[in-house]
Design brief:
single chain, alpha+beta, 2 domains, six-stranded antiparallel sheet, three-stranded antiparallel sheet, 6 helices
Length: 214
């Protein structure tokens, strides 16, 4: 039986993430024998990775032993939790301690930057639903929108949106500005140009440098 604590090398996780980027999501999942994650995702600045499969790949990198889907749990007490303990941001597992809660998405934008070019797509998506609040977890990795009906959270980060549809399947929307690798994700924040923001509304400015709101 796999001990989650035996995965202790952050470099092994980074190696697994690099392989995910190189192979692409579906090839990576097929290689390791894992299905699509439904709730727990390791999150970077512009995307998300299936946490259970990443754990398995990283465990194999560190120990040279393959881990089958049946040997581990991907939930709050399993692979996702261990990845969080190693310092990675994991959607779906953050607790309420340290959350910053906001009445609206716009209020949350004062503390979370999203490229201006992406805001139209984000707002179009949010307009299809009713939300009771927004929050940014202690990790600061994304804006979570909590539906008014108590349904599953919609996760919004700099380059993508992830949510669960009524039939239970997950859907990811890649936003127009998304410095992506082959998988559609990028983990390199250092490669991104430091964004300029409007000093009045704190939205990230478009390439013109002129805020359309002021």
């Amino acid at each position: 039986m796999v001990s989650y604590e035996d995965l202790s090398d952050r470099h092994a996780v980074e190696t697994a993430l690099d392989e995910f980027d190189r192979l692409g999501r579906w090839t990576f999942l097929e290689k390791y024998g894992y299905g699509e994650a439904k709730e727990y995702f390791l999150v970077t600045d512009t995307g998300r990775y299936d946490s259970k499969a990443i754990f398995a790949a990283a465990y194999e990198v560190q120990h040279g032993v393959a881990v089958s889907n049946a040997e581990i749990s991907g939930g709050r007490t399993g692979a996702a939790r261990r990845l969080q303990e190693l310092g990675f941001i994991v959607e779906g597992i953050d607790d309420e301690r340290g959350r910053r809660t906001f009445a609206t998405f716009d209020a949350a934008l004062h503390e979370f930057r999203i490229p201006f070019e992406n805001l139209g797509t984000v707002r179009e998506h949010l307009a299809k639903f009713e939300f009771r609040e927004a929050y940014i977890p202690r990790s600061g990795g994304y804006i979570a929108m909590v539906p008014a009906d108590g349904g599953l959270v919609h996760y919004i980060n700099s380059g993508s949106i992830y949510f669960r549809k009524a039939d239970g399947t997950g859907e990811q929307i890649d936003l127009p500005i998304n410095q992506s690798g082959r998988s559609g994700f990028s983990r390199s924040a250092s490669a991104r140009k430091t964004a300029e923001v409007c000093t009045e509304c704190w939205l990230e400015l478009p390439s013109s440098g002129v805020c359309p709101n002021h």
